[in-house]
Write a structure and sequence with these properties.
globular; six-stranded antiparallel sheet; 228 residues
Length: 228
């Protein structure tokens, strides 16, 4: 099992590694797990759900980690807030590591979508079978949409601030920010949405741009489906 943490300027960092069935390793893993929670980090375990769908589950105690889990990912807790100012001197190596973590956690389709469009689109089914979804942009609001009509619904502004290393800044690499939102939506959708600042459409993102993005990813998915 690996304990990984998303960090500004570096991407994911290996905190500890070991076999939980070995007493000495388990003690070290538990100690590091508790240390990260004491620092205020969230902890999530990625796993494969029904029909091979990639999912994630939040854990608040080491004993909650499912047997056979190969990794736990720590990341800063979500908070409402405005978008970050982009750093033109972003560390490219950190983004590269973040993209690899995105692929290994959210899956190959998510990686391809992010590489192609720079964001993720996820679909959901609510009560009564209503279909909806989210567009997940790096360091920008999450946009909710009606999956049947394509109507844009609202912007949810959320950030994952990590100021544990001031010299590295507080901004996670783009791919890590997208993955943190994906994990939080998978593991605790209601919790994330309730934490976010709810903004009207167009507050930070041009609705026409978002509609074009949604149409582009839908066309890409339809095309991918036709070739499989």
């Amino acid at each position: 099992m690996k304990l990984l943490r998303m960090t500004p300027g570096k991407g994911d960092v290996l905190l500890a590694e070991g076999r939980p069935e070995v007493a000495e390793d388990e003690e070290r893993l538990i100690r590091e797990f508790r240390r990260q929670l004491d620092l205020g980090m969230w902890a999530a375990v990625p796993h494969e759900g029904k029909a091979g769908r990639r999912e994630a589950t939040m854990v608040r105690d080491f004993s909650e980690i499912p047997d056979g889990a190969d990794r736990v990912i720590f990341f800063p807790p979500a908070a409402g807030g405005s978008a970050y100012v982009r750093d033109s001197h972003r560390d490219a190596r950190a983004e590269s590591r973040a993209r690899e973590l995105l692929r290994s956690t959210a899956g190959a389709e998510a990686e391809e979508m992010y590489d192609r469009f720079g964001f993720l689109a996820v679909d959901r089914r609510g009560e009564g079978g209503a279909r909806y979804g989210y567009l997940i942009y790096p360091h920008r609001p999450i946009v909710a949409f009606d999956a049947d009509s394509g109507e844009l619904l609202s912007e949810f502004c959320v950030r994952f601030k990590d100021d544990s290393e001031p010299e590295a800044g507080e901004r996670l690499p783009d791919a890590d920010d997208v993955l943190a939102k994906w994990i939080a939506l998978e593991a605790d959708e209601r919790g994330l949405i309730s934490t976010a600042n709810l903004d009207p459409l167009g507050r930070q993102l041009d609705p026409e741009m978002v509609r074009r993005d949604l149409a582009a990813v839908r066309a890409w998915r339809d095309g991918a489906g036709e070739t499989t």
